[in-house]
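**User:**
Make up any protein.

**Assistant:**
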Amino acid sequence: MNTADEVTPDVLRTIGDSLISKKMSDETLTALIDQATLIAESDGMPEQVKVRDKTIPVLRMATIDMALHLVTVIGKSGQGVLSEKVDVLERHYADVSDRGWLNSSKWGQLYMWLYRRYGGGSTPRLAVIPH
């Protein structure tokens, strides 16, 4: 990726503003971006593709989607929390057990769409091992 297309913590904060906690540091976001880049590259995402004479930065898009997906799975929404109430502590959970790892967030679903369209196959080589 060239510098203009670099995925940075500021890019993630701009796109996923409501998703990213104010407490999440640039170092944490940078680590998630690095991990997301490795996942996208290992899934065979091309750096760019041509679509009707336009250049689409697929690797950048996949990195952003996967990084934001990783943010969601480490946050409260990744734990299935739908809403919270502060005064009288109240928490509502969603049942996400049957969705699969990538389908548990809209960002994971976008990554899956890119993977199926431009990546290395129809099913990502990702596995979640319960522990």
